[in-house]
Amino acid sequence: MAAESPWQALLDWWFGSSLDAVEVSAQRNSLWFGKSACQDVDSENRFGGLVRQALDGGLQEWEREPQSWLALILLLDQLPRMIFRDNPRAYAGDARAQQLVRQGLEAGFDRQLPRIERVFVYIVLEHAEDLASQDEAVRLYEALQAEASASEKVLFAGYLAYARKHQAVIARFGRFPHRNAILGRPCSAEETQFLTEPGSRF
Q1: Per the CB 3.0–4.6 Å rule, which of 25, 62, 66, 125 could disulfide with 72?
Q2: What pLDDT tens digit does each residue of the chain (202 aa) get?
Q3: What domain range is 146 assigned to?
């Protein structure tokens, strides 16, 4: 029996086993978008070593095929936000993740993944403090929503709406004000006012 790929445990934990996007989202939404100290500790216990390898520039062999590429993106973009929550290191993998996404998009890796998995490729561009990346993220989510089956339309419309909210913040400020305190950046008066508004902290 062939050994399981080293990235498969991460993909199974993140996406579960269902092939239905709506079902996957229902089962995993709190893991993906909730804030839970228990989940943060669990991610550290399960994958903290791999996250640190990825942040240190390792696991380059994972860059070569769509599934391992996706897993490496998760190690760089999603898990640091859990393991290093409210710490500057939460964003330490962003630059490499963005580079990997662009390389993979050029190679067509995203098109070989299920739609619900592609959400976590495009979200890397949504996390970028760069308007061109935000514009590209919105375009990709628009295409994803257009491809979605009838039962998936509402789900993917939600992801698109969230991408547009991120795009609007970067268009207005050029950065995410909610990161300022974590990264030691001073807030402008406009940003300080914005952070008092509902929905200003993603």
Answers
A1: 62
A2: 456 899 999 999 999 988 899 999 999 999 999 999 999 999 999 999 999 999 999 999 999 999 999 999 999 999 999 999 999 999 999 999 999 999 999 999 999 999 999 999 999 999 999 999 999 999 999 999 999 999 999 999 999 999 999 999 999 999 999 999 999 999 999 999 999 999 888 7
A3: 20-194
User: Coil, strand, or helix at residue 46?
Assistant: helix
What pTM was computed for the model? 0.96
Question: How many domains are there within the chain?
Answer: 1
Q: Would you say residue 35 lies in a domain?
A: yes
Q: Which of 25, 87, 84 is nearest to 54 (CA)?
A: 84
Q: How many residues does the chain have?
A: 202
SS3 for 104-170 is: HHHHCCHHHCCHHHHHHHHHHHHCCCCHHHHHHHHHHHHHHHHHCCHHHHHHHHHHHHHHHHHHHHH
The answer as to whether 8 is a domain residue is no
Does 202 map to a domain? Answer: no
Residue 123 inside a domain? The answer is yes
Which CATH number fits the domain that encloses residue 118? 1.25.40.10
